[in-house]
Design a protein that fits this description.
- By secondary structure, the chain is an alpha+beta fold.
- It has a single domain, classed as Orthogonal Bundle (Arc Repressor Mutant, subunit A).
- 42% of the residues lie in helices and 13% in strands.
- A three-stranded antiparallel β-sheet has the order 1-3-2, covered by helices on one side.
- Helix 1 runs antiparallel to helix 4 and helix 2 packs across helix 4.
- The longest helix has 14 residues.
- The radius of gyration is 23 Å and the shape is elongated.
Length: 116
């Protein structure tokens, strides 16, 4: 039976040099994942598109159910996720809620992968 040769440990330290930039913190990773999860649903992408395309830069929740062909509770759920991710702003006026894009949120979301 032949024995395997004993290998010396690698002496080239350049292969294991620490990265120049610090790793993403757990908190930053959690926040980015929240945004990515919010954007990962086609209905939420459509909601962002509808709100952005609105003449006044906002949309009433009452105007968001028909284009998606979804019930009001489902649309409200999707809107809540977008608000929690920091993509939409919610303003209550009487019995209706109006949604608008958070200024710079889409640009910031677009840059999240670039800053890893």
């Amino acid at each position: 039976m032949t024995s395997l040769p004993i290998l010396d440990p690698a002496t080239d330290e350049s292969c294991c040099a620490p990265a120049g930039m610090p790793a993403l913190s757990a908190e930053d990773a959690q926040q980015r994942a929240l945004v990515f999860k919010a954007l990962a649903d086609p209905n939420r992408l459509r909601l962002l598109s509808i709100v952005k395309a609105g003449d006044s830069g906002e949309a009433c929740v009452c105007d968001l159910t028909e284009p998606l062909d979804l019930g009001q509770p489902t649309v409200s759920h999707h809107l809540k996720i977008l608000v929690e991710a920091g993509l939409l702003h919610r303003e209550k006026r009487g019995t209706w809620a109006y949604y608008s894009l958070v200024p710079g949120a889409l640009e910031q979301a677009a840059g999240l992968l670039a800053t890893l």
